[in-house]
Amino acid sequence: KYELKSFFESFVLALPNMDVFREIEGKLTDEVLFVGCGSSYNLALTASRYFERVLKVRTKVFPAGEVAFEKTPKLEGKLAFLFSRTGNTTEVLLANEVLGRKGFKTVGITIEENSKLSKESDIPLVFPIKEEAVVMTKSFNMILLSLMFMADRISGSSVSPYGELVEYSERFFDISWKAVEGIDLKRYEHFVFLGVAEFYGVSLESALKCMEMSLTFSEAYSTLEYRHGPKALVDGGTLIFVQKVAGMDEQEKRLKRELESLGATVLEIGEDGDIPLSNDWRSAFLRTIPAQILGYQKASSRGVSPDRPPHLEKTVTL
Ligand code: F1P
User: How many Å apart are CA 177 and CA 97, to the nearest integer?
Assistant: First the structure.
């Protein structure tokens, strides 16, 4: 919790001296690619939506495996962001090679200075974050915060909400912890995460987190998509998190009523929600925290390790 605050402060101080920042700034005129695997794909998806929103750039997002084996539509543009916490995931490295051959400048976003991605990408962007666990948690939040902040700085939009959100992060963590602690987790074997736009990326990441950490069936949808089929699986063992968004109050209320009438428990994250938070898109970097806590607490209640899921390695190689 404390770490997020000190990381943010040092990132803000370092930003004006980052060459990478100026290089990126000058190359945002064409379509920009966002590429990654797993949590890093969810990070790419979430960041791309915010870049589109504030910088008015066109973006395309691909799982690295589709770029690596050239299964995408024709790729246009000059700049590609490649995300990999460890910087050694095979598909991301192959995607970096393919994009290089196609004339893209690649920005390698990672936390490992000595990784292949930081050496092989044209513009390495290495964040000073330490994360030992196999499952990616704080790197997701911190890298997302940094990229959104960068996008706002480049576009000249206000960055003051970040200060307030980072300030609120410790309380948000505590509130989320208590909210999850208040749930009888043994009752639930099905977790659902709903959100739109940036908060859809956050929901995908939330579901992946709960699945990896607690080995519980978890899924994510764009909020109203959930009514178009997936709700057939709702019962008393379903716990649903809705990421609230400005301008959809009425729809969210009706959805909550409907899902509760089917037996589900629904928790809302956002303004006037069960876990209160600003509805500003900039709050995206905090919105995975309730799921990270849920994954942790559910794993504890099942006696499994939230840090080391079976069959999974920190770096997935092909
Ligand atoms: C990608 C990833 C992680 C996941 C697990 C396996 O890694 O899929 O998202 O949590 O650790 O690898 P990376 O390319 O970001 O290092």
Answer: 42
